[in-house]
Amino acid sequence: MAEWDARDPRWLVAERKDGANVNGWHWESKNLQGWCRERLQALLADLPTGLDPMLGHAKLEGVKELTGEAVLTRRKGNKTFAFYDLTLTLSWTGCWAESNQGIKGTVVITELAVSSEPEDYQWTFSAEGTGVGQDNLKAAIQGLKPQITQHLVQFSKDITMLC
């Protein structure tokens, strides 16, 4: 062997044109952020609350923001794993009949990860402004939590099917 720091060319790693990922031996990663946004939008857009029309109406508009990481990794050409750790912000709109004004808000879901169970998700519901209409519509949107959770479980199955 060459002595330490002797710069023997036999031991130096050189960039080689033929040194590509031969036989898929090394890790390959594919960013799934765009796919996740599209899939979540398809699952969660225009989700109605079922609120009595005499009182008002509210519905989930869809994905407002999606942050975090979503990656599909492949090792040795055939071992595929999906990894994601996301924070999802959904927007909602509605109108309370008594005030006859448009009300907007958000639902923020954190801990949306490959290793999380639905009961681990952290939920934050908010409405712009204050008042009876905002409180009632926010409560109606909170009533969508089981439906949203069901769609998030479906999303988890869908991303696993990519493997």
UniProtKB/TrEMBL annotation:
Pfam families, A to Z: Aha1_N (PF09229)
Region forming the signal peptide: none
InterPro entries cross-referenced by the UniProt entry: Aha1 (IPR036338), AHSA1-like_N (IPR015310)
GO biological process: protein folding
MF term (GO), any: protein-folding chaperone binding
Highest taxon of source: Eukaryota
A GO CC annotation given for this chain: cytosol
Domain Activator of Hsp90 ATPase AHSA1-like N-terminal: 29-157
Family, similarity comment: Belongs to the AHA1 family.
Protein known as: Activator of Hsp90 ATPase AHSA1-like N-terminal domain-containing protein
Native source organism of the sequence: Symbiochloris irregularis
